[in-house]
Design brief:
This is ABC-type transport auxiliary lipoprotein component domain-containing protein. The protein is of the alpha/beta class. Helices cover 36% and strands 32% of the residues.
Length: 200
């Protein structure tokens, strides 16, 4: 083979190797660590005492765009970003359901609140929650929007309410998760007040 051809082949091979190595390094540098988050039950005391309140809490229904492990951030009115590195550590609907239940147990002081799906529990009124929006935006605002529905033990609607809550959050993901937990605590207290008003 002509020396010039050999040299060109070697140069082509070296160039391809350099490109491959550069691509690999870029991929490694952009991957970054993965962090996992859970919501927390922030209610601290029985602010709405209702020890006789019997209720099944759940299920929680999420908007389609929230049914994923990656956390959602809102960039503009029409643009949302799904994180590859900041992930929910469990199914978000289950996590919200657990936090709502714990908050309501603390706020009301009732031991008769049960999570949705428990087998062998006598029929009792149930609370269903639909989450239409749960995110934080570039302005540092966390938002929680949706509706809740109170059903009788025979599944007739007793009450329906919508909610739109927001609070400020710092730029870190942990701060944003804490802000969302705070909003769920506020929602829990609003629901407890509404339920005890219905009972009185």
């Amino acid at each position: 083979m002509h020396p010039g051809v050999i040299m060109r082949n070697r140069l082509s091979w070296i160039t391809a190797l350099i490109i491959f190595a550069g691509t690999s390094l870029t991929g490694c540098s952009s991957s970054g660590p993965t962090d996992y988050y859970l919501l927390s039950a922030d209610a601290k005391s029985a602010t709405v005492p209702a020890p006789d309140l019997a209720l099944t809490v759940g299920p929680v229904y999420l908007a389609d765009y929230l049914q994923r492990q990656g956390m959602v951030a809102r960039s503009t009115a029409v643009n949302y970003q799904i994180s590859d590195h900041d992930l929910w550590a469990s199914q978000l609907d289950n996590d919200i359901n657990i936090v709502l239940l714990k908050n309501l147990q603390t706020i009301t002081g009732s031991s008769q609140l049960r999570p949705f799906g428990v087998i062998g529990v006598a029929p009792q009124p149930s609370l269903r929650i639909k989450i239409d929006r749960l995110d934080s935006d570039s302005q540092g605002i966390a938002r929680l929007e949706g509706s809740w529905q109170l059903l009788s033990s025979d599944h007739k609607e007793l009450r329906y309410e919508t909610f739109a809550l927001n609070t400020s959050a710092e730029s870190t993901t942990e701060s944003q998760v804490n802000a969302i937990s705070q909003l769920i605590s506020e929602l829990s207290e609003a629901i407890a007040k509404a339920l005890t008003t219905d009972q009185s």
